[in-house]
## 1
Amino acid sequence: DTAVSQTPKYLVTQMGNDKSIKCEQNLGHDTMYWYKQDSKKFLKIMFSYNNKELIINETVPNRFSPKSPDKAHLNLHINSLELGDSAVYFCASSQELAPSYEQYFGPGTRLTVT
Amino acid sequence: GQNIDQPTEMTATEGAIVQINCTYQTSGFNGLFWYQQHAGEAPTFLSYNVLDGLEEKGRFSSFLSRSKGYSYLLLKELQMKDSASYLCAVDQTGANNLFFGTGTRLTVIP
């Protein structure tokens, strides 16, 4: 059973389009995250949610809008895609928001904007 | 400012020991994580340190010195499957808000 799953695995789209990435975790965790990993492999947090509530919103363009319909899901919608949005997007979850809890990462979604 | 420094690349021989260093300057500190990431895959958790000293877990150990802003990951009895990127990350706020370094790509050669 996959602990953290994301769909789709690959996404190729044109500039200006709107797209969504879905994430689900079956670990019963309270906290979920979205990360962006650029071409230089730098992994940067974008958002975190705890029990469906937004906790962290790093400096991310408002074209990116996360939605958490329930504790087990955190989806990412991106409007008006730009070339610079091309990256691998990872969803992750942890048991709680507190320190020391390891994060479990999904397999990633490779987004290519042409 | 905040910064995490790691060597970009390292090469080591199968069966040997390798130490990957990480120095950090962050706005806050609530623990330091090491993650392993194989090419094309997701990061996976290796270790967490919040107090000074060495934490040992099988072939992998992690060390922390908070006063020096320094950590290292020690890999013993290297295997080919240890070829991967190793990411150092600091929890700055205590809310599991991880600030990652750019990672060290380790290549293990026969």
## 2
Amino acid sequence: AQTVTQSQPEMSVQEAETVTLSCTYDTSESDYYLFWYKQPPSRQMILVIRQEAYKQQNATENRFSVNFQKAAKSFSLKISDSQLGDAAMYFCAYRSATVAGNQFYFGTGTSLTVIP
Amino acid sequence: NAGVTQTPKFRVLKTGQSMTLLCAQDMNHEYMYWYRQDPGMGLRLIHYSVGEGTTAKGEVPDGYNVSRLKKQNFLLGLESAAPSQTSVYFCASSSTPTGTSYGYTFGSGTRLTVV
């Protein structure tokens, strides 16, 4: 099974500053997808950004961008101009494009605090 | 609104009791999943289904059973609840991962406490 590692259990950032959350994964597959999900205190899982492994260009969604390093199996999330509403638990996830079931494998999460 | 609906949202069980969690989706998704979320452990897959009438074990299936008699519903059962099953349970669904339709849609979760 694939493993996803988030080595930062907690992070904090000043409002309006930039923060980067780290994620590494282990796989022998060449075709897969990577995701970042946000979980605020409401518990709802919200998709932040996604990346197809075959694309070399890093995905961007407004203030959120990723640094995808396929050879290094690294997928970090950068949040620019941090806002109070960004405070949440963030999960990195991997999904195979070929294995039957195509289930997600999640990291253990990073709790982000935004300091006013 | 289209999406994934989980019922109930909260439940307290006594050790040894049984219960069923219901997940319903109205997006005609083929794939459905049950995860549990525990502090420091992320989300772990319990069981999943790739279509009506099919089920398969995930990473942590022991103590749980599932059924998918209808495409839109995926039931998770606990036959004899144990305190170790205290957790937040999430249901998710997705279409097959083609094109841009390869993300999960999550339910809002069920907080289960076994005392």
